[in-house]
Structure formats: C-alpha cells, structure tokens
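Hi Y.,

Following your request, here is the sequence exactly as I used it, all 141 residues.
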Amino acid sequence: MGTWGTGPFDNDNAADWAGDVADADAAARPAMIRDALAAVAHAEGYVNSEEAEIALAAGALVAAAQSNGPQLGSYGPSATALEGVVLDDGVRALAVLAVTRVLGASSEWRELWEEAGELGAAREALVPLLSRLGAPADGVS
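Below is the corresponding structure, written out as tokens. Let me know if you'd prefer a different format.
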C-alpha cells in the first residue's frame, strides 16, 4: 500500500481513482462517486483497505461539492472535476455511511492506521470531510 499521508487522497488507490474521475466525462462522475461510496456503505462484513481508501476519496468529493466544502488537496482532482456535477442529498447520506463504515471496527483501513499508531491523526484528517457532510466527527468509533 502506497500511503504518504493521512488525507483522503494521500494514497495510491485514492489518487488513481481521483485521476480516473477527473479523466471521465462529467456525466459519468456522479455514478463513479456513488458506486465507490455504495461499495463500502452497503458492504457486508469486513471492508478492505482499497475500497475504504476509494470511498474516503469519493466522500471528499461529495464534501468538496458542498458550498464552502474543504479543499481537495494536491493529490485529489482539481475543482474543475466537480464543475457541472450534481450530487443529490442521497449521495451525501451515502458518503456519511461509507465514511462511518471505514472508521468502524470492521475496516482494514482502521486496522492499518491502528497498527501504525496513527489512527488519531488519520481520523483527525477526516474531521473537515465529516463536518462538511454533516456527520459528527466525534461520534464515530
């Protein structure tokens, strides 16, 4: 796993996925975002790290699409990737569910950050995302 930071795009899986989103036709982007979120939000059982990292990147795009949303960072797509992309409230709710699952106990993402002794920092990096999505950052276990 190539990870160089705690941000939602600071790993190979998320950065590659963000590049795919940026390269896709604008009409295809909402489905790409929804599919990435649904893969984790509706997963039964354990969530692997690749799906988790991509879901966090998708959640970051949803958060950034909100008015005054957080910046996407240097490894995320440019803001132009969201121009003309319409994400309904259902996608935002799906993003909250997916991010909550990633932060939960049945997540390889969480386990890897715990093993590295950096779970607190990784969770802290997601506070702006959770806030913009309307989810309580402190209520996730």
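Residues 12-135 form one domain.

Thanks again,
Q.
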